[in-house]
Amino acid sequence: MSQPPPPVERYETDLFGSGPGNISLRPLPPGEPQRLGPAFAAIDPWARLGYKADALSGYLGTLEKSAPRYAIMAGTEVAGAAGIRLNWLRGPYVQFLGILPDYQKRRLGSTFLAWLAHEAKRHGEQNVWVLASAFNADALRFYEVNGFARTGEIVDLVAPGTAEVLLRRRL
Ligand SMILES: CC(C)(COP(=O)(O)OP(=O)(O)OC[C@H]1O[C@@H](n2cnc3c(N)ncnc32)[C@H](O)[C@@H]1OP(=O)(O)O)[C@@H](O)C(=O)NCCC(=O)NCCS
Question: Where are the beta strands (DSSP E) in the chain?
């Protein structure tokens, strides 16, 4: 007997309303995974790690109940994307976070992390987790200024010869 299809869930999370920057999270609009995959494959860390555009599009376009993907919106424009694996180690794991180059350093990433920490805490979670490549100094600094601390290094996980740093934000 064939397996039933996984449940499809839509997330319509208008989090930041008309506040500063009018940032919101939405399900990825149709066509966006196909547009964002090549855009992220062209920039580090994914370029350096050898991620293919199709793989990133496939990830962003997959509906998975326990791992929602979001478009990070700046007003009406898709400025980036995020993917969260829920219920990881007493808290969610940020599986994917990318802000497109034109929108970086406008606090979109920080606002996303602040929302995630707030929501996780509200649901009784104790941590938020993320991995960043050891060579990705900008991202490591970004997570550290957002309250994450390095908890360990995992070698040869994503690509041979590179290490991933596991970071934890206690809630
Ligand atoms: C890393 C990333 C998610 C940060 O999001 P962002 O919206 O650009 O970051 P913010 O504007 O919220 O930055 C907050 C702080 O992080 C640091 N920071 C962020 N991006 C930085 C960069 N490129 N270089 C140096 N510091 C940076 C700064 O200290 C900044 O504080 P400031 O604005 O007071 O100087 C985003 O730049 C990005 O997607 N980069 C490429 C992909 C990537 O590395 N993703 C993470 C994979 S684990």
Answer: 23-26, 69-74, 77-85, 93-99, 127-133, 149-155, 163-170
